Amino acid sequence: MLVVMSAVAVLLALPVAALGIGARRVATVLVYGFGLAASLASLAAALGQLLSTAGTTPAITLPLGLPWIGAHMRLDALSAFFLTVVDLGGAAACLYGLGYGRHERAPRRVLPFFPLFLAGMQLVVLADDAFTFLFSWEFMSLASWALVVADHHKGDTVRAGYVYLIMASFGTAALLLAFGLLAGPEGGYGFAAIRAAAHSPAEASLVLALLLLGAGSKAGLVPLHVWLPLAHPAAPSHVSALMSGVMTKVAIYAFVRVVFDLLGQPQWWWSMAVLTLGGITAVLGVLYALMQHDLKRLLAYHTVENIGIIYIGLGLALAFRAEGLAPAAALALTAALFHVLNHMTFKSLLFFGAGAVLTATGERDMERLGGLIHRMPVTAFAFLIGCAAISALPPFNGFASEWLTFQAVLQGPKLALWGPKLLVPSVGALLALSAALAAGCFVKAFGVTFLSRPRSRPAATAGEVDRFSLAAMLLFAVLCLLAGILPGLVIDTLGPVVGGLVGQRMPVQSVEPWLTIIPIAASHSSYNGLLVFVFITWAALTAAQVIHRWASHALRRGPAWDCGYPDASPLTQYSASGFAQPIRRVFGTVVFRATEEVRMPPPGDTGPARLEVVVKDLVWAVFYAPVAKAVGILADRLNRMQYLTIRKYLSLVFLALVILLLALELWL
Amino acid sequence: MDKLVFDIAHLLAGSVLLVSFMMLYQNRLSALLNLFALHAVILAFSVAWQAHLQDAPHLYVTAMIALFFKALFIPLALHRIVVRLNIHRQIENVVGVGPTMLLGMGLAALGMLLMVRITPDSDLLGREDLGFALSTVMLGLLLMVARRNAVSQVIGFMSVENGTILAATGAKGMPMVVEISVAFSILIAFIVIGVFLFRIRERFDTVDLQALDQFRGEQG
Q: How does pLDDT run across A33-81, given as a tens digit for each residue?
């Protein structure tokens, strides 16, 4: 605990040092170097706590915060797991930043806030009372906001920052109300007091709804996701990786901490709400992602999809727990938490890759990239592994956790109540749909960006990025593979976390031979990542061998049939929007209100024909635009209030006082 | 004995409220200033009586401050200002004395009822005192809202402050520091407002605040 707290203190002190040093190179190295060291120290402590069998939970009370409460910090199994996720992501981002930060145009807008953001996230998962939690939460939000608007010269960035600020404030307000309800009229703000108190069903349901709003808006649940695809890509790439890979996980932590730990026994219909939201989020997230051709925005929409998958796991766990099916609940919760870890690794990896592409070419638009596999082979390799992992291809980690989620879905028939029983298979279908669409989406992302011929001059002249960035990407690529081959190790590590939340853990996997994992019983299902890995490697090597032995000799290079157009423009290649067009046709009219218009020039006109596609965000049109309009109208009406006389202002104040007193009088 | 003690405290606090009502009614400026002085004198007596009851000598200091500053210094200074501004004979158009008085009675009733109901655990004396104090504060605010003349508004403001002092002394154990800082802030406010009155007068030839409205910029 002491190690973790000193790491946080170092991170909090870094901005001062960064601002004090004039030379930007030195400041960059200092901030990211010390950030890396602090994250690694904290990571070691968190892992030590997670793996220890002593069963102690270190806690510390600092004389900060509210005078009669103090700041309580505690490192139990759940906190330790999420601290591991935060620190792992943070350490890799620091490593990446050592190289990436050199290309920063205005490092002074990033350097002071980056360590603060890291410290804020660590404090959120450590907090053991509502005040500390909310304070750290808001601290994290504001620090990340400052990072989002670091490049404030672009209009888009400013708009993204504005939307993010509003959504973050809204989320914090919802959480504030939730914790107010949890603490009750006596004001027991410590988590221990909240855990011990009894909550009436109506109150607990209200808390759940507020948490879905508060934590959901930070995590990116549809329809609260609108800020995420705007804000995540706007930040510098290593910050995007942190926001997408780590901060959304901190939001998941808030949900798990309150719903599974503090609220007590769930009610039967909670799972239905969470499952429905999760399923919708997963499918809509990936559909929106398919429509994008901005690489970083595509990744941000995929975060929305993966949050949906995690919420499906959490919803399943709630459903099983409500009916007392502890083994199934443990399976579902393990799957969700495993996916938390996995999404952190591959999403950070992919954002690092997108950042590397951005550094090398200055482009985020896929329609202007292409052919980078020849120019940036290592980045392309790491990015490919990330794509395979996020598409849930074995033997990578994404497959392991999504497979576990499906195993939990298959436990659905054990549920007694018909509502969840009928809902679970349909959510399973949504999950399968989103997994398939995700694979298609990453074929597009990788294919258009790294394969084919370069579509623009910067893409044709790009070069490989620096060693620090490559090291960070390769580190996560290795982790993706390791977690995919050794899922049993992760499941066993998650044992105490899950055991503490649903009362039972999954069966111990390390006793199974050959790294097999068996979630329920061997007769049901089993998965062996090592076997799949060995098979894939063997098959690939054999195939390559056979091809080179038998086919390469017969290879003959000659001009391809070019339809009579020699040296076609690279722009005639298959494009990203062309790839997405079938999907847009299928879902477009309903989900996106997509309209396609072909404009042919009249005969005799030499102008080009144009195909215009308009894709609308339905969520924005339905939920947000009316609210924004109403606020605008109301603000116009209230504008008159600015020009009252002093007496009228006094009368208003007086009237407010009298009304409040009257309310008090009638209330009591 | 206990009954008598209570009755005297009650009488003094009630008198403060009564004078508040008189101020609400009074439409001549000089008379209003005299009433304000009376308000402060009664307040000083009330505070002194509380000091005697609670055996809290520092409250005597509070009473002295009330007596010297609010009952003597400020009314005298305001008198001088009024004379120098040449409005001491002016009769203010108080619109709707009847409705204002009715409103004041309603507010006083609200204050009393509320205080008696939300403080069932405190001693009777404190409850009554708080009720009177709240009513006085609200009547002061009403005075500020109902009048247009800047001097009357200043008096309304001061009587609000008197009400808070009444509330604070009724509650046992208010620290001296709070009392002194409140007194100082009132003094500063008085000086600032006094200066402003002259500035306003120089510029606009009146201290009727309605005349200022047409000079405000950027009206919507």
A: 999 999 999 999 999 888 887 777 888 888 877 777 788 899 989 999 9
Amino acid at A243: M
Q: Tell me how many domains chain A contains.
A: 1
Which of A643, A654, A665 is nearest residue B114 as measured by Cβ atoms? Answer: A665
User: Residue A347: which residues within 8 A CB-CB, separation 6 or more?
Assistant: A241, A244, A245, A299, A302, A303, A306, A386, A390
In terms of residue numbers, what domain contains A658? 619-667
Best of B24, B141, B164 to substitute, by most chain A Cβ atoms within 10 angstroms, is: B141
Residue A525's closest CA among A396, A338, A422, A400?
A400
Identify the segments of chain B with pLDDT beneath 50: 220
Lowest mean pLDDT among A223-227, A319-323, A438-442, A595-599: A595-599
Task: Report which residue type is found at A336.
Answer: A
Buried b (16+ CB within 10 A) or exposed e, A321-342: bbbebbbbbbbbbbbbbbbbbb
Nearest to B107 among A640, A653, A658 (CB): A658
Chain B interface includes A668 (CB < 8 A): yes
Instruction: Give all strands (DSSP E) within A76-170, no chain letters.
Output: none
Three-state secondary-structure class, residue A597: strand
Q: Is the pLDDT reported for residue A452 higher than 70?
A: yes
Domain boundaries, chain B: 2-213
pLDDT of residue B173: 61
Residue A661 lies in a domain: yes
